[in-house]
Amino acid sequence: MSVSVDSLLQQFQALSVEQQIKVAEAIDRLTWAKRWVAVCERITARRRNLPPLSDEQIDQSVQAVRREKPLSARSLTPPS
């Protein structure tokens, strides 16, 4: 069975907002692992010709990010 992307999008747009959210969440769950692998592969490709980072360099980068924003501002969980 071959369904075009345009046809699927038209069907999706005909759904209620609640149904669209359920479909989007289902697609997110189905594709999460593949998207994660793709991100890892892009990182590896970008780093391929660079020397490996030392633990100290990684620690410095982490500390720099932590200084940019407080932990609560970076967290996905709202403060309680």
Mean pLDDT: 88
Characterize the main sheet.
none
What structural category arises from helix and sheet content?
A: mainly alpha
Flag low-confidence runs: none
The percent of residues in helical segments reads over 70%
Number of strands: 0
N-to-C SSE series? HHHH
Cα distance, first to last residue?
Answer: 49 Å
User: Whole-number radius of gyration?
Assistant: 20 Å
What would your notes on this structure say?
- The protein has helices at 5-14, 17-47, 55-68, 71-74.
- The chain has 80 residues and is mainly α.
- The chain is flat.
- The termini are far apart.
- The mean pLDDT is 88.
Observed structural traits:
single chain; mainly alpha; 4 helices; 0% strand; flat
Give a nutshell description of this structure.
This protein has helices at 5-14, 17-47, 55-68, 71-74.
Question: Strands, helices and their partners?
Answer:
Elements: H1 5-14, H2 17-47, H3 55-68, H4 71-74
